[in-house]
Write a structure and sequence with these properties.
This protein is mainly beta and about 260 residues long. The protein has a domain at about 15-135 and about 180-215: Acetoacetate decarboxylase-like (Beta Barrel), CATH 2.40.400.10. It is about 10% helix and about 55% strand.
C-alpha cells in the first residue's frame, strides 16, 4: 500500500476524498433513536461522512449520518439519514433497500489546505464544518464495515401494526483499504433544526475527530439480515421525510 497522495485525471470526481467526522454523544439519546432489535454499540459514537461520488454516472454530494449500533450481536452503523443533492437517487434507494436518502442542498469543497462543508434543508444550514489540513496520516489497515438499513411498508389500510412489507434489516457490508488520509483541525457546527434534528438528538459530548479519507473500494454487498419485531418497530415507522429520525406523518414532531 502506497502512502503517496492520490494522483488522477484533474477534475475527476473519483479523486474526491470523503470528509469523515466522528464524535461521542449522549448514550441515552442515541439509544432512543434505535428501534427494538437494533442495539447501541460499545461506544455511543456518531459517524458523519461528506462525500462527492458518482451515482448513476453523475456527481452526488451527500452527508451520511450514522451511529454506532449492533444487530444480532454484530456491531456496525445504523443509518439515520443521507442528505443528498441528487433527486433521482432518493426514491429508488428508499424503495429498493430502505436507504434513508432525502433531498438537501450540499456544498463541500477543498481549496489548498482549507476544507469547508455545508448542508442546508428547509432553509436551515443544520451542518457546517470548516477546517484545515494539519498533517498526512499513515495509511490505515483494511477496514470492514456493516451498515444497517431498514426496509418496511405499512399497510394501506392504516391499521396499527399492519404492514404490506414487515420491517426487515438490511446488512450493507463494505470492505475498504485506506489509500491516503489527512488529519484536519477545524470546527463542527450543528444547528437546531426541526427537520434535521442531529444537534438535538445527537449532541456533541466528546472530542471531534475529522479527516480527509481516500478509500480503495474492495467489496460491497447488500443482503437481508433478518426481521425486526413489527409491533416494536411501529412507533419508529413515522419518520421525518426520508430519514430515520422520529417524526409524525412524514414531517418533524409537533412542537
Amino acid at each position: 500500500m502506497s502512502d503517496a497522495a492520490p494522483q488522477g485525471i484533474p477534475g475527476d470526481n473519483l479523486n474526491w476524498p470523503m470528509l469523515k467526522i466522528d464524535y461521542l454523544t449522549d448514550a441515552d439519546k442515541l439509544a432512543a433513536l434505535l428501534p427494538p432489535g437494533i442495539s447501541p454499540a460499545s461506544s455511543p459514537e456518531v459517524r458523519l461522512t461528506l462525500y462527492n461520488f458518482p451515482v448513476n454516472n453523475e456527481p452526488e454530494l451527500g452527508l451520511v449520518m450514522n451511529v454506532a449500533a449492533a444487530y444480532d450481536g454484530v456491531e456496525g452503523e445504523y443509518s439515520l439519514g443521507y442528505a443528498i443533492d441528487q433527486e433521482q437517487a432518493v426514491y429508488i434507494s428508499r424503495e429498493h433497500w430502505g436507504q434513508p436518502k432525502y433531498l438537501a442542498s450540499v456544498r463541500y469543497y477543498r481549496l489548498h489546505n482549507k476544507v469547508e462543508a455545508f448542508v442546508e434543508h428547509k432553509g436551515c444550514t443544520f451542518f457546517e464544518y470548516q477546517g484545515t489540513v494539519s498533517q498526512d496520516d499513515e495509511p490505515g489497515e483494511i477496514t470492514e464495515v456493516n451498515e444497517w438499513w431498514i426496509k418496511a411498508s405499512r399497510s394501506l389500510t392504516m391499521q396499527p401494526n399492519q404492514y404490506d412489507y414487515s420491517p426487515q434489516v438490511l446488512k450493507v457490508y463494505a470492505k475498504y483499504r485506506t489509500a491516503f488520509q489527512q488529519a484536519l483541525d477545524g470546527e463542527l457546527i450543528l444547528r437546531d433544526s426541526a427537520w434535521d434534528p442531529i444537534a438535538q438528538k445527537l449532541p456533541v459530548a466528546g472530542a471531534i475527530n475529522a479527516r480527509l479519507w481516500w478509500p480503495e473500494f474492495l467489496a460491497r454487498e447488500i443482503t437481508l439480515a433478518g426481521p425486526l419485531d413489527p409491533e416494536g418497530f411501529w412507533p419508529f415507522a413515522d419518520t421525518i421525510g426520508g430519514t430515520r429520525f422520529p417524526g409524525q406523518l412524514g414531517g418533524p414532531p409537533a412542537s
